[in-house]
Design goal:
Low-confidence stretches: none
Number of helices: 13
Number of strands: 17
Strand content: 15-25%
Largest sheet: 8 strands, mixed
Order of helices and strands: HHHEHEHEEEHEHEEEEEHEEHHEEHEHEH
Distance between the termini: 22 Å
Strand order of the largest sheet: 1-11-10-7-6-2-3-16
Oligomer: single chain
Helix content: 25-40%
Length: 367
């Protein structure tokens, strides 16, 4: 089976460094918010191009923490998309705010700024653009709307570590940027982990306090917080991988181009790259009007293709009928959910495996 993603292959690629890092932590005797977390926060913030990083327990908690740090809660509205991992919407609800979902740009699969304009109101306190699949959202248009209407921008960068819009990395545009280090991400740990990044020192201080019971002084809660701390072991592992992130992203891009070239002439719609951006291809997502039959064919031939995501958040049982759907509806979102298909892609994938996937797809179309 050719897996869609393979974190075990990346562990083997960096095994010596990872094993040494784990041993260093185990023998150091400091397992919570120690030197590894502090160093990784500094290194990752510098990589993104911001001043502050706050390590947390997951990407979901990064979003939750960022929203709470911006003072968003009951009675507020936060605009995002339905074509995303459920975590984006779940994090909004954790604050007590109301999610407002708008449609996507079908080319980028990211929030359509024109649809956003139609739902902005005095209750809109934040917008969460999701840089989905590794493609940056249209930050120029979103920043223009922010200047006009004054809402916060919290970037969901969970699938876009290292992606660039213009001359800056995602995570450096909004008031805060949020990352997941789930094992399959472009920068993945060997368990859960996340980070909030920002250039705003006040927001950074608030986030650091909220992630640990609202402490500023130890054992004294200055505000109501909770517990969401990045683990020392995961931070040490991520420090091993971070210096290789750009090289791994370049490998993903090269493999993506091999797919695009090899699938030319088929009915598939291959992913594009928005002008002025770099796409880091967390996922290589094609579109097919016969997606389900193609998926069955691939899986029967040992190709572990997957769907990201088969059911938009607003149609899932926990959310159906109770979220605010903004603008002109979610036509493009629902259409994408019926057509998207993720082909195997990770840096350790070999060219022969890419060729195999291409041949299986072309066979489906009788080519």
């Amino acid at each position: 089976m050719i897996l869609c993603s393979n974190p075990l292959a990346q562990y083997h690629a960096f095994k010596e460094g990872i094993d040494e890092a784990i041993a260093r932590v185990l023998n150091g005797g400091r397992y919570i918010l120690g030197e590894e977390v502090r160093a990784f926060e500094e290194e990752f913030a510098r990589y993104v191009g911001v001043s502050h990083g706050i390590g947390v327990g997951s990407g979901t908690e990064a979003l939750h923490l960022a929203l709470a740090s911006c003072g968003i809660g009951d009675g507020d509205e936060v605009v995002t998309v339905s074509h995303t991992a459920v975590a984006t919407v779940a994090a909004i609800e954790l604050t007590g705010a109301r999610p407002v979902l708008v449609d996507i740009d079908p080319g980028r699969f990211t929030l359509d700024p024109n649809k956003l304009l139609k739902v902005l109101s005095p209750r809109t306190k934040a917008v969460i653009p999701v840089h989905l699949y590794g493609q940056p959202a249209d930050m120029d248009a979103l920043l223009d709307l922010q200047r006009r209407f004054g809402f916060r921008i919290i970037e969901d960068c969970s699938q876009a570590h290292g992606a660039i819009h213009g001359d800056r990395r995602v995570g450096s545009f909004g008031d805060m940027g949020c990352f997941s280090f789930y094992p399959t991400k472009n920068l993945g740990a060997l368990g859960d982990g996340g980070m909030v990044v920002t250039n705003d020192g006040e927001l950074a201080g608030r986030a650091a306090s909220l992630r640990e019971y609202g402490w500023v002084e130890r054992y004294v809660s200055s505000r109501r917080g909770w517990n969401t701390r990045l683990d020392e072991l995961q931070a040490a592992i991520l420090r091993v991988k971070l210096p290789h992130l750009d090289r791994n992203n370049a490998r993903r891009s090269a493999l993506a181009q091999a797919y695009t070239d090899g699938l030319a002439g088929t009915p598939l719609r291959c992913p594009g790259i928005a002008p002025g951006t770099s796409h880091v291809f967390h996922l290589y997502v094609v579109r097919s009007t016969d997606r389900d039959h193609l998926l069955d064919h691939l899986q029967n031939e040992g190709v572990g293709a997957l769907i990201h995501y088969p059911v938009p958040v607003h149609l899932q049982p926990a959310y159906a009928g109770r979220l605010c759907l903004g603008g002109d509806g979610l036509t493009e979102t629902e259409k994408a959910a019926g057509e998207v298909l993720s082909l195997p892609l990770y840096p350790e994938l070999e060219q022969a495996q890419i060729d195999r996937v291409i041949n299986v797809v072309r066979d489906f179309y009788g080519e």
